[in-house]
Amino acid sequence: MLKFRELCVNLQQNFEKTSEMKRIKTIYLMLAAMVVCSSCLSSSDSDVTLYNDAAITSFTLGTVKRHLHTTTSAGNDSVVTTTVAGSGYKFNIDQVNRRIYNSDSLPVGCDVSRVLCTIGTYNNGAVVIEGTDSAATLTYYSSTDSIDFSQPRTLHVYASDGSAMSKYTVEVNVHREDGDQFVWQQTADDWIPLPYASQLPAGIKQLLGSCTSEMYALSDDNRLIVSTDGGQHWQEDLLDDDASLLPVRDLSLVSYPLFLSDSTDYVVLVGNRSTDDYPEEQTAMVWRKIVDYGSKAPQGRWAYVERTDNNRLALPRLQGLAIVRYDDSILAFGGAGIGTLQHAPWTTIYQSRDNGINWQAASLYQMPAGFDTAATKVDATVDEQNNIWLRCTGTGQEWRGRLNRLGWTK
User: Fold this and answer.
1) List of residues 6+ apart from 388 with CB closer than 8 A
2) pLDDT band at residue 260, thresholds of 50, 70 and 90?
3) Domain extents for the chain?
4) How confident is the model over 309-348, as pLDDT tens digits?
5) Which of 3.40.50, 1.10.760, 2.120.10, 2.60.120 would CATH assign to domain 182-407?
6) Which CATH class is domain 54-171?
7) Is the pLDDT of residue 283 over 50?
């Protein structure tokens, strides 16, 4: 067994190789002495093994306080403090660049200025922390002492034999905005042109949209027609339900891949029937179609979404309906109620999370403040950056909005 005096002399010689190691020489010699003494007390003939590895192998945050600003029922600003389990956020350790960071940022409002953390090292290396104001200030890491992670911190990890040291930069990322907040901005002349803005082909009243393999339109005699060759030829589409249930006005269509199957799109069409023929109606007509564009797949058929005990939440019968696919749901914008339906124009965004079956007033999405409700029609689309665009006929307003988290860098 190494003599305690000889071990301490060897450690001291290793530490004095650099000026930085001199600064923690005393701390580390004390640790080494504790290890050796403990070993000597437990057994007089056991060896003490020291290693030359200097690496951090794990990093976990403890409980983090979160301060949320809210408004009381009296309209006063208030701050509510809750906690977030830091252990639920994985920290990546980049051993090549010596970086430790969380890809999934902590929620907005998290206070990381006083946080406990657990640091694992290879072969029980020792960790010290540089000061926030000076690299010359070094503090021995303890899992029971809080650390200020409001800015990047530098950690030093020393091998147990004192022969090696590595530096790591720790970054604790916190979101600066609420991920589930939707923000609108009024724009001017920035509208993204919709497809099919050219002159309508003969016999077509309105082009509705397309999926991967088909285009859809409403004919002059109010039939739902389809083209599978890019609009060169059209034919009446197949229906599984009574054609009298088809909408003939305020039409809007979306399509998106059906996640349960390859080479398959899901198409939703909404609109209203004639007020002359159905003056008392208060709900919009919703149809859906599953389109399999795989090899030798049969032609899909449109199905009417009827009201049952399981899907009572209908889309209201609103003027100028416009729908978009957004954040794994469908959003519907609409003007005033039609016929006997009393509904203020352009005040509520409706949302369906089950592919157009049930519709509810959206909780995360509100119409823009300052929206001119005199608009007679709204065109809506979504761009590649997850922005929703609205262009208003009759008022000329243009709006762009996005859910904060859909704009974050992955």
Assistant:
1) 324, 326, 331, 380, 381, 382, 400, 401, 402
2) confident
3) 1-49, 54-171, 182-407
4) 777 899 999 999 999 999 999 999 999 999 999 999 999 9
5) 2.120.10
6) mainly beta
7) yes
